[in-house]
Fold this sequence. Notes:
The chain contains five helices and seven strands; from the N terminus they run E-H-H-H-E-H-E-E-E-E-H-E. By secondary structure, it is α+β, with helices and mostly antiparallel strands. InterPro entries: Papain-like_cys_pep_sf.
Amino acid sequence: MTATILPEAPGSPHRLGRHVHHDPQSLAYAAPALPYAALKSIRWTRRIDVLDQGDLGSCTGNAAVGWLGTDNVHRQGLASAPSGHLLDETYAVDVYAYATDVDNVPGEYPPEDTGSTGLAVAKVLKHRGFIQRYRHAFGLRSTLSALQSGPVLLGTVWLEEMFQPTTDGELTPDGAQAGGHEIVLDEIDVERRRVWLTNSWSAEWGVDGRAWLSWDHLGYLLGQQGDVVVPG
């Protein structure tokens, strides 16, 4: 099954780079969904700086490294790879480059800045021994449930109004489609019915590099060919 390429709109203020690959085999690895009443608020601490992908469409690699650098229920966020490389922008580009080799998007980086998929970077994390497996959250309740155990990778369409959050960090999925983007969901706020994400457009974006989506807006984006990878 080939990926669905999400072209980037010209003139966008930030680079994107995520494409859609929904493998039917992923249905056999569905993450469980808890009752809404069982959900609790939690923010998973990030141990590395917010990354900045700059002019490269490497959001999938950046999100994967952001996940590695963030706590989960099993371990504290990592600062470096077993090889000794710091989990920084250079390593994120390396993960992205490897993902372009294993995905089903035409071309490879370098030299072609092809973009990649959440599924591909999950395969890279597994191949490099960071994780033993990965699952997939299908739908809003499953995504919120997965956040009870740690951060997750969210791949979504990116709409024009999402480039600039409000001053308090709200993202509103509105406007024309600008492309696809991969980010890290790392906080659930049950009382306010929000999820927070960390982006890869530097700490100058949003609220120290972060923004939030209402549960309704997250559900909407998941319905627009969104996907959630739950590494473990």
